[in-house]
Amino acid sequence: MITSLKRVKQYEDLGLGLFLHWGLYSQLGVGEWSEFIHGRNKAEYEQLIHTFTATKFDAKSLVRAAKNMGAKYIVLTTKHHEGFFLYDTKGLSDFDVMHSPANRDLIQEFVVACHEESIQPFFYMATYDWHSPLYTKNFKKYLSYLKESVELLCRNYGQIGGFWFDGNWNKKDANWHLDELYQTIRTYQPEAIIVNNTGLKNRGKISNPEIDVVTYERNTPSAINHGLSGEKYVAGEISLTMNQHWGYAKNDLSFKSPREIIENIAHARQVGANILINVGLTGEGSIPSINHNYMNLIGQWTKMAAPALYKPKPTKNLKTDNRYRDFAVVDKNNIYLFIFDLKIVGNKNVVLGGEGNNLRSFTGINKKIKQITWLDNSKTLNFMQDVSEKLLTIDASGFMYGTDWVVRIARITF
């Protein structure tokens, strides 16, 4: 039997998060890996600290925008691979925000705003570091430097939702002394979730017993590795960029369609994974206008889908017709059917394809159904049920003219 910790279950109920990438690289507007990929001179690149002003960083507005999107937690880069800290390192490093024109602890502002809006603050911390010479010249001392930087975050910002580490994949054979690092977190933040991004080649791998969540970066798995029998239950998380970069890239116009993003959110919940929707802040710290519009649009769908989106869990008991992508999730009282690929109802002059019967079948329901209603407009659906055979067929009516929710959700009540 797998042991289930309360903090991991509570994390799964968060469902949807906002991922924020922000650092010196944001001023260049060409992605978060620009220093490395573009082969920039390190000394010249790090002069960006002298123009980092954060004049448009408004933590309260940002957190409200995340909340409006439906996010229950936010992961913010406290330090990316460039090595620049967005918080006061108390003398640990002079490559921090207090040595920039901003001269304010941005992580402190972020945490306060999160707590005011009942949003869980998570800290991204890059373990792979291009700034510190210790990373390549004295790795043992670098690990002490890393642990001290994490301890500062543990001790100075009140209750933290979790830590999101990234970069161990760069030295995959090194001894990262993870037990010591994670024990630091458990000492000061015993209920904090610990995530360590496994990278693109090791999605879903559990690297240490203290890991609470395994990652599936830009990938929707068919199943989540929750651990083996006798071990701790581990949650799963998927990350999704709106375009092709994590950091702000002003000339990256290749944005995903809202349909693709909404369908990815739905698929994450189908397999029981949380999903992080990423935004790269501008150099001054604001949400780019197109990302803000996307967040508003996602928020429309999450408000409609909310009863089915957070606490309900996948079920192996209900099977759907393989011709469709439909699936079901359950809570204590209801079953929610996620229905894909519906059309809009037109008329004889404007035929949009949603007319007539749209029958979808499910097996595995052995209780008599009282009613099935759409979440978006509360209208009831016609259905046929054979309880003895555990068969259910619904007439999944098309969208009313003037609407298209991409993925429509029906609630079954008994």
Can I get a quick summary?
The chain has 414 residues and is of the alpha/beta class.
Describe the protein.
This protein is an alpha/beta fold. The chain folds into two domains: 6-309, Alpha-Beta Barrel (TIM Barrel); 313-413, Golgi alpha-mannosidase II (Immunoglobulin-like). The chain has helices spanning 6-14, 34-37, 42-45, 59-69, 106-116, 134-137, 139-156, 178-188, 258-270, 289-309, and strands at residues 16-21, 73-79, 120-126, 162-166, 193-197, 213-217, 235-241, 274-280, 313-314, 319-320, 327-330, 335-339, 359-363, 371-374, 383-386, 391-395, 408-413. α5 links the parallel β2 and β3. α4 (59-69) crosses α10 (289-309) and α7 runs parallel beside α8. The longest helix is centred in the last third of the chain and has 21 residues, at 289-309. It is globular and about 70 Å long. The mean pLDDT is 95. Keywords: Glycosidase, Hydrolase, Signal. Alpha-L-fucosidase is responsible for hydrolyzing the alpha-1,6-linked fucose joined to the reducing-end N-acetylglucosamine of the carbohydrate moieties of glycoproteins. This is alpha-L-fucosidase. Residues 9-304 form the Glycoside hydrolase family 29 N-terminal domain.
